[in-house]
Predict the 3D structure of the following.
Amino acid sequence: MPVSDSTISALIDLNRADAEGLVAQLTSQLRALIATGRLGKGCALPSSRRLAGDLGVSRNTVTYAFEQLAAEGYLEASHGRRPVVTVDGSERIEGTGAVASKTRATRTQLSPWASKLKQTDWPMSYQAPLKPLRPGHGDFREFPNEVWARCLRRSAVHAARRELGPVNRTRLREALAHYLATSRGVRAIADQIMILPSAQAALSLIAAALITPGDEVWVEDPGYPGAAAAFRGSGARVTGMKLDAQGMQRVPEAPAPRLIFMTPSHQHPTGRLMSLERRTAFLGASQPGKTWIVEDDYDGEFHYDSRPVPALQGLDAHGRVFYVGTFSKAMTSDIRLGYLVAPPALAGILEIAQRHIGLIASSHVQEALAEFIADGHFLAHLRRVRRLYHARRDHLAEGLERHLGEVLTAEVPSGGIQLVARLRRGRADHAAVKRLGEAGVVTRALSSLALDKPRDHGLLLGFAAWRENEISAALRTMASCF
Ligand SMILES: Cc1ncc(COP(=O)(O)O)c(C=O)c1O
């Protein structure tokens, strides 16, 4: 059904006081209206002059938003004509399997936090079909399900004999403290470790405990959208820090923020390793008790070219670093287990906060995992898949060079589960992702991971989850698409 210009204007709600600029707000609100089917395929949007007038913003603001959505494949915009929606909310957008619902946007009174959720496409855009070369996963098919099932069974059978009460099971905390010390150089006693349903839960817990609305938080740009989402959820002003070859950059003259979020082992998404010099600089900038660092080591188990670089947390002698990890990549994401190593001074209050929010992982699963680790199955699994993923990384990197070297430049990471291939020409990564998605290859646009205005354009390609023959087939399809 056609939607009138005035209805479209009325559906937009811009806030000049918001740290997110007007262009970003308008772009994300229009994107959400299209993605939810509120503005269907073929719907003509108001002209930039009309919409700018209705919303009381400059015409450039509207034009930039239209251009961005056209680049992402949501709109067709040509000079002198009203832009037209080119996708249906029920279709998969950019091959990511985004949106299903066509229900009407409601005007229910939501909290300020919840009312902003619909303006962002994270995490929907992370729910692409599970097909090559979807990034972000290990190979679940390689997980030793039979062994894991035995651990789960034993844990359930022994449940009646277990002490009730501790939300963070001692056996798992101790197993993790030992594993993290020996494998990642993390310095922690068991009491500092919270067992949570995910790394994302750890970020939300940190945000709830430390952020006062208006606090400044630095994140990597491009970076992991879940981090910005968690900190914004607590009212933080989130600023993106550019990257260079050494990882996240620090702006020396900028006043130290409340919190700095980083992925120093393999920067998400570029895979870059933060240099020791940069790590030391960030530690130096974080004053104990004032500026905290959150180190997200989401795939630090996977390193291929040299010995793994120890965690930043292990370099910190003053208890300024939160260390976050997850079993989503190393085991399977369905296991729903992550952890947080809190600075000693905050461990007690974080455990109380954890109970208040209810971010508690099942004791059955915690006990099963403690046994899985103690009996050596976890390390054995890691050793096996590390070899596989190493070969898959090389296979993808070589194939990209051989078949797509004219159009893409791969940045080969020393570890991790995915790599970035930059477009040699142009900035149309959304269009490329859409074209590849239609041909059956799932990728992610690098520009979609920008916090603000995208500076980087390319494709994020997963290698860990895909067998070499699957990678070869995907490369052939890709070569026919460019
Ligand atoms: C950098 C980074 N951190 C954290 C996570 C989330 O992990 P979890 O599934 O445990 O929430 C992801 C997931 O893709 C990630 O890429």
About this structure: The domain at 5-106 is CATH 1.10.10.10 (Arc Repressor Mutant, subunit A).
